[in-house]
Amino acid sequence: MRNRLTNLRQLATLINEQVDFIENLAEQQGVNYPTIDTIFNECNESEKFTTQAEVFDASLIAISAASQLIATLKLPVPALYERATGYHISSALRIASEVCAVELLRDAGPKGMHVKDIAAATETNATMLGRCLRILATHYVFKEVEPNVFANNRLSSMMDTGKDSKFLVKLAKMANPSPLQGVSTVRGEKYINTNSVVALLDISTDYIYKATSYIPDVFLSNTKSRSAFQTSINYDGSLWDFFEEHPHHLQRFQISMEAWTRMNPANLQSSLKGFDWSTLPTGATVVDVGGGNGSVSFDIAKRAPHINIVVQDRVQTIKDVTIPTWQADPEKNELLKSKRVSLEGHSFFDDQPSHLVGKVDVYFMRYILHDWSAAESAKILKRIHAAASKSTKLLIIDQVVPYACPTQAHKHLFEGSNLPQAPYPLLANLGEANSPTYRLDIAMEALFNGQERTLGEFQELTEGTGWRIEKIFQTKGSNISQILCTKV
């Protein structure tokens, strides 16, 4: 009997060891780890404790072991059924967001609010709303304090926009329907000056959710002439074309990108840790390819005041997003006036502007290649290669997807590519503890026919476009890496 339980005991031991470590550290620092019933407050010492690197690392091991223990103990059919019907959680989350449930419950306090009162405020169906909140509470989002009476908890309170509930309810009713079938109404004002989490959840439960349901159809048709997103709303343009036609959707999308730093505390520094910008010569030129609102360039400019930065993106994005963002911020606007930073409308599928050819020290791109297929990504890298001098560096900042099995294939091939091994008997990639990486991978497929890539896939892509991987800067606890390449 003991031998048959060995695997269960190993997993349980891993959980106990990590919990002991976390609780001992918490005791030393005089804090308690937050419970599921506490309201999230990032200024709280307990919440700050959860983001400490050693605490976060220990929690990943515990989560991985707990998830694997659950998968081992649960019968296969209910385990598979849960995975097949995860879309019900997405639907319920979107409804909760649309009816401003979090903000209404914030006003109600710990005693909560009856579902009939929530529904009355938003003129929605109380029975259906109650069922949605209950399935969420069953998955630890919200708390049912009495029959049909709900309150916020740690998870649901993370969705709080911080805005007045009456304003949000009014805003929801003002939204103008789109003429396109399947396109939801969005008001960008909902997401401005928020923690960005609700923006990420809303795009995930809106068009990413809808598009994902069409991935099997696109896959089985054996053609990628249209993405799952295009198929889902019967639209011929790209997602970027869609955003230009629907600026509120673009606004929500741009804000949602900031939430990835909250997904993992190590992600916050992953774009800046690694390559030493201070080593560039005075007056060096750095091009931020597809730089969006230029937030990373701003951080780099502060760290390396001796270099010049060009932020490139689509003309519409530069006009509607980047320029207003930089002109509205005194510190950023001063960088524009001093010409240390310039904003340039440019498509990375076109030749680089002539004034930059042969004169750029570093081209860098953050979260760009995952938006595109291998063929389209190759076009982007070839355009940069054609404009680069022999000494130009290419810095790719993106997720490197770990394999789910042990591998030695690239362990010593590139400097910095060594990854810490997961303790036995956990999956090599820590399983569900690391699931956001793989979920984002499928989301990229749904939206763009894009993908997150393994190190082997990055090697194939760079070598096929005239670049050689020189070094990898990996931030501990994050799959986001900096891949430094030289021109072949």
From TrEMBL:
Domain O-methyltransferase C-terminal, residue spans: 239-413
InterPro entries per record: COMT-like (IPR016461), COMT_C (IPR001077), COMT_dimerisation (IPR012967), SAM-dependent_MTases_sf (IPR029063), WH-like_DNA-bd_sf (IPR036388), WH_DNA-bd_sf (IPR036390)
One MF term in the entry's GO annotations: protein dimerization activity
Source superkingdom: Eukaryota
Limits of the O-methyltransferase dimerisation domain: 84-159
Annotated transmembrane regions: none
This protein's UniProt keywords: Methyltransferase, S-adenosyl-L-methionine, Transferase
GO process annotations (BP): methylation
Annotated Gene3D superfamilies: Vaccinia Virus protein VP39, Winged helix-like DNA-binding domain superfamily/Winged helix DNA-binding domain
Pfam families: Dimerisation, Methyltransf_2
SUPFAM superfamilies: S-adenosyl-L-methionine-dependent methyltransferases, Winged helix' DNA-binding domain
Protein name as catalogued: S-adenosyl-L-methionine-dependent methyltransferase
Provenance organism: Crucibulum laeve
